[in-house]
């Protein structure tokens, strides 16, 4: 029986859980193509940015996770082309291209930060979608306190001690809360020329509510808690400009104003992977406003029953862009594929089971929406801790995370406060390099020699007997 080749794009929740769901199929060969060597537990990125966790605690090696899955292979590279007719995926890393054929394709490339057509904002207001984002923000946040310590003019000191978080969804609320805890609790004894408790933390959003997806009561609870922590919540206000020293805003009345701030965090809006456009151009699929692919009820691409799209890339029934949608979608796609390979009836259309939503505000305080239940405070925080430990991949990561949480939540320290100028500057410098000047893998003459043709069993037997 010929081996069925499955290519999975992305090592996030959708890609990883989809790959693992096929682990018992000896007739399936899975190739996971990803642009990073790790699986990222994105919900805890803000804790890397604020010094609670190390990047390794939330990003275990993909190869290590899949080491015992004999039918799975991992390839490092950014997908630059998908040919649905030829059934190939082309990936590239440091100038080297790899073409991988497939019989079935599972696309789970996730989403990036959306700046709503103002991508130049990213230079001064990093998002929260990758380890690089988190490390850059860690450098900017802790660096701002260091620069404030050196400031000689009050205006300069105030600019460094003003932090603006754009976006009042879960990520923005969590970031604003943690920066407030840094300023008012963790760092308050560490400096001599400044009082970190005088830091100004602003949570800004064009929407009229905090945590709108959680409902009015929980959103109100979150806003009240943030206000008590010293966070200024500014709603109904648009961002119209961002530069190195501040952020320009437009108030609900239509007037323009400016906030002087050295550190800005962008936590508003997401944009699906550009691979969605590539898929739509080769199929009957359409894209929604966020660039997500409108898929069939069985998560297949319209006109392409051999291509599944899951997670943040898929648009179906207004499903939220959360980890559980990606996990359940990937497992459903694997189940659907296995039924097809076995010649059995396909399962019913994909149905998402909502396990609830949670967001932390500060230590010992969170909000949770589980089914019809809505609650906040310490109980919600305990539930948040338990759920996140359960979904962390790997025993080492769970133990490490628990130890770091004990240091940060019971004590007042942050164990991951190391920052370098490289973390802050490197990505923007790399972005300025022309594509033709970017570093590439070294090539020597022997690298161009064709690989030997595979031997047939008969040829191998003749060689062995000879």
Automatic annotation (TrEMBL):
Requisite cofactors: FAD
Region (Disordered): 436-466
Subcellular localization: Cell inner membrane
Top-level class of the enzyme under EC nomenclature: oxidoreductase
Catalytic reactions on record: a quinone + NADH + H(+) = a quinol + NAD(+); a menaquinone + NADH + H(+) = a menaquinol + NAD(+)
Superkingdom per UniProt: Bacteria
EC number: 1.6.5.9
Occurrences of domain FAD/NAD(P)-binding (ranges): 5-329
Record InterPro entries: FAD/NAD-bd_sf, FAD/NAD-binding_dom, NDH-2
GO MF term list: NADH dehydrogenase (quinone) (non-electrogenic) activity
Coiled coil: none
Protein name: NADH:ubiquinone reductase (non-electrogenic)
């Amino acid at each position: 029986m010929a081996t069925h080749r499955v290519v999975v794009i992305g090592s996030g929740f959708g890609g990883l859980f989809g790959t693992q769901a096929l682990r018992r199929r000896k007739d399936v060969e899975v190739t996971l193509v990803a642009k990073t060597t790790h699986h990222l537990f994105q919900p805890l990125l803000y804790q890397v940015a604020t010094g609670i966790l190390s990047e390794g605690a939330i990003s275990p090696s993909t190869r290590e996770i899949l080491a015992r899955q004999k039918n799975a292979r991992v390839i490092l590279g950014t997908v630059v082309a998908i040919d649905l007719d030829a059934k190939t995926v082309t990936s590239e890393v440091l100038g080297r291209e790899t073409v991988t054929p497939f019989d079935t394709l599972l696309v789970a490339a996730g989403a990036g930060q959306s700046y709503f057509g103002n991508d130049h904002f990213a230079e001064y207001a990093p998002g929260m979608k990758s380890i690089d984002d988190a490390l850059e923000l860690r450098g900017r946040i802790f660096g701002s306190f260091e620069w404030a310590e050196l400031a000689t003019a009050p205006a300069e000191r105030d600019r460094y001690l003003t932090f603006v978080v754009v976006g009042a969804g879960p990520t923005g609320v969590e970031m604003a809360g943690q920066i407030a805890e840094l300023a008012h609790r963790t760092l308050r004894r560490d400096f001599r020329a400044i009082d970190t408790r005088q830091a100004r933390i602003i949570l800004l959003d064009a929407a009229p509510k905090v945590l709108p997806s959680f409902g009015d009561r929980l959103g109100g609870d979150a806003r009240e808690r943030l206000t008590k922590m010293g966070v200024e919540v500014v709603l109904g206000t648009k961002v119209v400009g961002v530069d190195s020293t501040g952020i320009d805003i437009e108030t609900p009345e239509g007037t323009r104003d400016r906030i002087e701030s050295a550190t800005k965090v962008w936590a508003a809006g997401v944009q699906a992977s550009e691979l969605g456009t590539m898929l739509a151009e080769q199929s009957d699929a359409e894209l929604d406003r966020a660039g997500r692919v409108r898929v069939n009820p069985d998560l297949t691409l319209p006109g392409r029953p051999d291509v599944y799209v899951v997670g943040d890339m898929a648009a179906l029934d207004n499903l939220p862009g959360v980890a559980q949608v990606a996990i359940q979608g990937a497992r459903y796609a694997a189940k659907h594929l296995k039924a097809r390979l076995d010649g059995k009836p396909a399962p019913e259309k994909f149905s998402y089971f909502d396990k609830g939503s949670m967001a932390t505000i500060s230590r010992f305080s969170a909000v949770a929406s589980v089914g019809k239940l809505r609650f906040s405070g310490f109980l919600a925080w305990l539930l948040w801790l338990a759920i996140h430990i359960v979904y962390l991949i790997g025993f080492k990561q769970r133990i490490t995370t628990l130890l770091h949480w004990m240091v940060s939540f019971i004590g007042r320290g942050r164990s991951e406060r190391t920052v370098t100028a490289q973390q802050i500057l490197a990505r923007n410098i790399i972005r300025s390099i022309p594509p033709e000047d970017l570093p590439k893998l070294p090539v020597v003459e022997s690298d161009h020699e064709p690989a030997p043709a595979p031997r047939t069993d008969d040829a191998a037997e003749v060689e062995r007997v000879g």
